[in-house]
Write a structure and sequence with these properties.
The chain has a single domain, classed as Alpha-Beta Barrel (TIM Barrel), CATH 3.20.20. The protein is 37% helix and 17% strand. The longest helix is centred in the C-terminal third of the chain and has 17 residues. The chain is globular. It is built from nine helices and eight strands. It is α/β, with parallel strands linked by helices. Helix 6 links the parallel strand 4 and strand 5. Strands 3-2-1-8-7-6-5-4 form an eight-stranded parallel β-sheet.
């Protein structure tokens, strides 16, 4: 079975839609199956400026409804799936209007029952990261379209010693949301049975922003893509 690669662009466009479009095109060229963004009300989602050194940055990377439609159009143009992590019910309506195929629930939203319930009501599939899930077993989320859970360590970057990938049951987890440096963990996850890989992507690891340093470059994405294809021929 082909493992999907989700290029998590997230906030790494730094509020510049031209950069966002370039990242979509680079993700497609390097072999990603999905280009993923985050749609949120920054002032409602993130801690206030007094407790959050990235507050101004978070606000500057908030996508408007027009931005969402523009980025989805670029994805359609180049032939890559547009996906987004959604953080409130108003923006579920935006994503329904733009015609997303499925939804991402971020680790930080795992206990947001109203949000998850509203996404489930769309009838579309969900991909749910469990980096902040602290209880035994997996959540009992029901969705008509099905739920894929991603193993995740919510550290940026996540040290290799914390990953414990060898003990992950990829019959229960559909895939891996990778915040580690480089390509090793991503490639290892394919060998261990992951069917979905999500990893942040950037054009410049030294760019301003909290996620760039632990993101993959287009060249690293191409390496991961090539490994996936080679591994699938070995199975």
């Amino acid at each position: 079975m082909k493992t999907e690669i989700i290029a998590e662009i997230g906030q790494n466009h730094n509020g510049d839609m031209a950069v966002a479009a370039d990242l979509i095109r680079a993700a497609k060229k390097a072999g990603a199956d999905v280009a993923k963004f985050q749609v949120y009300d920054a002032r409602a989602l993130f801690p206030p400026k007094s407790a959050n050194p990235w507050f101004d940055y978070n606000c500057s990377t908030e996508l408007s409804k027009d931005d969402v439609f523009r980025l989805a159009a670029v994805c359609d143009e180049v032939g890559i799936e547009f996906m987004a992590s959604v953080f409130d019910t108003d923006r579920i309506e935006w994503l329904e209007e733009v015609g997303v195929k499925r939804y991402k629930i971020a680790s930080r939203s795992i206990d947001d029952a109203p949000l998850i319930g509203a996404v489930a009501e769309t009838g579309k599939p969900m991909i749910v990261s469990l980096g902040m899930w602290k209880r035994p077993g997996l959540p009992s989320i029901t969705a008509r379209g099905g739920v894929d859970y991603l193993y995740c360590i919510a550290k940026y970057p996540a040290p290799f010693s914390d990953l414990k990938l060898g003990s992950v049951d990829f019959e229960k987890y559909s895939g891996f949301s990778d915040h580690s440096l480089g390509t090793a963990a991503a490639c290892a996850s394919f060998v261990l049975g992951s069917r979905i890989l999500e990893k942040h992507m950037t054009m410049d690891k030294a760019a301003h922003g909290p996620d760039h340093a632990c993101s993959m470059t287009p060249d690293e994405l191409a390496t991961i893509h090539a490994f996936r294809n080679d591994w699938e021929q070995c199975e």
